[in-house]
Structures are given as C-alpha cells and as structure tokens.
Amino acid sequence: MAGVALVGSLGDGRADDWSDVDLLIAVQDAALDDFASPAHLPCGTGQLTFAIDARHNGPRGTRAVSGQYVFNGLPLWVDWHVHPVSLASWPSNGTVLFDRAGIPATPAGFSEYLNRGEHETATTNSTEEGQAMRLALVPVAGKHLARRSLEAPRMIEFLGGPYEPAATWQTQLVTLHRLLDGFATLGRPDGLTAGRAYLDLLEQILSNRLQDGV
After folding, report:
1. Which end of the chain is more exposed for a tag (fewer CB within 10 A), N or C?
2. Is 184 exposed, middle or buried (0-12, 13-18, 19+ CB in 10 A)?
3. pLDDT of residue 77
4. Structure pTM?
5. Tell me: the pLDDT tens digits for 111-167?
6. Cβ–Cβ under 8 Å, residues 152 and 167
7. At what angle do helices 151-158 and 127-146 cross, to 10 degrees?
8. How far apart are CA 51 and CA 183, in angstroms?
9. Alpha carbons 45 and 58: distance in angstroms, whole number
10. 142: closest CA among 130, 133, 151, 131?
11. Residue 160: strand, helix, or coil
C-alpha cells in the first residue's frame, strides 16, 4: 500500500455522527486487483457483513469496493477507492493519512477527481447480491432520515418501499423496519441484527429530538 487518504465528508471536515467512511487507497499498479478484494482490505475489529464490486464509481483503470461492517453491534458503510500509483492523485478536499510514494496533489475535489474520463464498466450482480445490498443499505436510508434529507424517501423507494416525501419520520421509520424484516429470508443474520439495532437507535435519537423541540 503506497498511500491512504480520507475522502468524502470525513476528509473535508463535513462529517457528522451519521457519516460513512470513504477511503482513497493508492497501491502499486501490479497489486491493484489484489487489493481491490474484500478479503484483502483491512477491517480492524469490525466484521464484514456485505461487500460489492463498485468499480463503476471510478475512472477507467481504478477499482472500488463498497461494504458494510459491524462494529459493537452497529453497521458502518465503507467505500474503498483503490487506485494504482500511476493514476493516483490526492484530491484537494481529502486528508492524506500517509504517502510512501510521493503521490501528487490535484486541485480537483474528490467528486471531480472520481468523475474524470470514462468510468469502469459495472460488474453484473446476481439477484441475491442485489437483495443483500438493499439489506445493507437500510441503515444508509436511516442516516438520511436522521439528517432530514430529501434522499431518505428516494432511498426508501430504491429499497422497495413507497416514495412518500411528505411522510413523517415516524412513518418512514416504520417503512424501514418493514423493509428490513422483508430481508430476513436472505440468511444474513448479522446484517439483519445490526440493521435492527441501528433503526432502534435512530428511533431513540429522533424521539429525543422531538421531546427537546429540535
């Protein structure tokens, strides 16, 4: 591994308690596909419950893996952007954690950096993988609900629920619980248990906000 930078909201100082983790990893060119594998990505004390090839989110010649990890019973979504040293630059709004190869900086922000040129072709996922991804994304929809974001009803619709932008958070949370329970037959108990814990925590926090008049 030649270098790592925090990108996304954690990298540019916009993170909140609901933020996911986005990492840009620079590796030697010959090791690109070795590193772009969930089995070779570090997870610390966390447990990987889901991972998917997300190379279509980056420019040609790069790789990406998105996954859900469980830490202390709660899920965390992590996006790993794995780029070869020959193509890598540090975005202007990222935070470099270490650099062993003297990788150059770019004035481009992370989104602009990712969207340069042609993208990698998306890999084909099975129906089961698609359902497993939706299970892992239920807490992500909950994150948007916590932020009172318009992305929440869009995410709920993507997960298989109704699109109801005018619904209360209580109604949207009930829908997320129902959608989560619908994934029980997938045989992924760890992701299901973590999702339920996340939604229970979300309900507690949103109820406290309501009581405090926030």
Report:
1. C
2. exposed
3. 95
4. 0.93
5. 999 999 999 999 888 899 999 999 999 999 999 999 999 999 999 999 999 999 999
6. no
7. 160
8. 16
9. 28
10. 151
11. coil
